[in-house]
């Protein structure tokens, strides 16, 4: 398994685990809140969620590439070719499309009058889907090139 595939799989699994833990933690915090305090609590949760995703992705990439470099490989010094650029473009398009659809879906739920809880729940789950879409795109694209 090449490093990019390994990074993608580990990032997807760790981000899913982070989402489950942070979402469970947040549900007890927001259960009785309303109005501005509810929006503030969900805002804090979304920041924690996204920063956790970012931190996990950086740590996993550094660990995998550092391990490869310690084993005599090139680590981060690997050169990107046209295929890498194409895969990056596909993954980012997937992420962009899913994020756009998620924002539209969340806003539509809010416009239908389903309330802030439903809006923020939909937004958090669709952020997870966008993140997983990104990493699955990487895993599939690099997995096909073996």
Return Rg in Å. 18 Å
Q: What overall form do the CA principal axes indicate?
A: elongated
Query: Can you count the beta strands?
Result: 0
Which stretches of 5+ consecutive residues score pLDDT under 50? none
Oligomer: single chain
Helical run tally: 4
Percent of residues in beta strands?
under 5%
Terminal residue distance: 8 Å
Mean pLDDT: 88
Tally of separate domains: 1
**Secondary structure category:** mainly alpha
For the biggest sheet, the summary is: none
Helix and strand run: HHHH
Helix coverage percent: over 70%
Note the main attributes of this structure.
mainly alpha; 4 helices; 146 residues; elongated
Description:
With 146 residues, the protein is mainly alpha-helical. The chain has one domain (3-144). The chain has helices spanning 3-30, 35-70, 82-111, 116-144. The longest helix has 36 residues, at 35-70. The chain is elongated and about 55 Å long.
How do the helices and strands line up, and which of them pair or pack?
Layout: H1 3-30, H2 35-70, H3 82-111, H4 116-144
Helix pairs in contact: 1-2, 1-4, 2-4, 3-4
